[in-house]
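User: I'm curious whether this sequence folds into something compact or stays loose and floppy. Could you predict its structure so I can see for myself?
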Amino acid sequence: MAATTTTAVGNPLAPEWLTVPNDANDLPRAVWSDTAERRPSGDLAIGGVSVGRLIEQFGTPLYVVDEKHVRARAHDARRLFDREFTRIGSRAKVYYAGKAFLSTEVARWVTEAGLNVDVCTQGELAVALAAGVEPSRIGFHGNNKSRAEIDRAVGVGVGVIVIDSLVEIERVAEAATAHGLVQPVRLRVNSGVHASTHEYLATAREDQKFGITLADTPETVARIRGHSSLSFLGLHSHIGSQIFGTDGFAEAAARLLTAHAGLLAGGDVPELNLGGGFGVNYTRVDDAAPLETYARALADVVAAECTRLGIPVPVVAVEPGRSIVGPAGTTLYTVGTIKDVSVSLADDTTAVRRYVSVDGGMSDNARPALYGSDYMVRIANRVSDAPAALVRVAGKHCESGDLVVLADYLPADVREDDILAVPVTGAYCWSLSSNYNHVGRPPVVAVVDGSARVIVHGETEADLLARDAGTTPPASPKNGTE
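Assistant: Here's the prediction. I'll summarize afterward.
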């Protein structure tokens, strides 16, 4: 293929936000994990481990997690929210939102940094417990917790259960009574704040499955307080995910504090949980605020509203997940088929889009198919001085929407067997992964100080077949021989 057909300077198929980079080998610092770097050889290295070594040892696709990055962001979250809420005469509780990515190793990293852990299924609870997380440091979410999940959560002594519906009040109260315990609970309410994010990620709107309305809050809290086996800690709100600005959080906090103040007449309300959803940069044009900005803004609005309402400042809980683990992750792929496609334009001209297909896809990163999410991509095994070409990185699955990177620029000489690296895949990639087309989930490897180790095993063909009840196990060898 001639490079002249794919050189993408001025390619009209590029989205408006995407500009041709001066160097298609660069690693924009705002997107890549803390320890990612180009070595003089051209190889990408993360955590002091070269991509070549990782591929030789683990193959592709491969999730790579920068351990230092996760630990540093967890420590920052603890430090920043502690500092800002101490400043206004209160304190903070910081929960790591396990739904972003949870393994026993990650649970240990974040708890060692001083964070609690938020889970929303029995499986996530099991992982946290297996990691040795103290149950009192676990919060349990979910809009449809089964009786078995509630019973287990209460039985092991989780620190708080978030009540999501009226029926859960009775279910949690019954479980607590059966175990002879008093279970601390929060109540999830919909603030009505319409966060600026994807429709599927906005979780505080009125017409959706989570929580109850603010108008129903007083009566619902009265029902909670009517059970001697429940201890009401306060309200909980989550306005959405991947939110860049602080205005939505400030408005939600103001609305919740008004409700919070009204509840004080009926008893103590020691806490207020404002959720998470702090955005991260996925491309060079994104401009997510640093975590410090969110911490300061929330503390300021809580202090101002409590002064206005004439109430004590409660303990404030937050639940960052993506902002801690998202940028720490990079996914590696091997290039297979490359195809140039001529696309007709409205002015009767044509433009060329280069499809670069890799050995993974929507089974290891569903976000582009689910949300139209944008990512960046770089060749990871070498550098090139070829001109930049517009590419679309496609997966190997039987869906036209199976795209990993919707649009970015790579050197025009990208070729079969190149290794591609897609950054910011630490959150909601492994968590949303599947076995579509009977593809095994890739392993997750942690890198730190020049060493690499598997923290989640990948799935083999044998693993997939082992779950198929129609397979016949191979006969056992006789006398210890084949």
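Summary: The mean pLDDT is 92. The longest helix spans residues 67-87.
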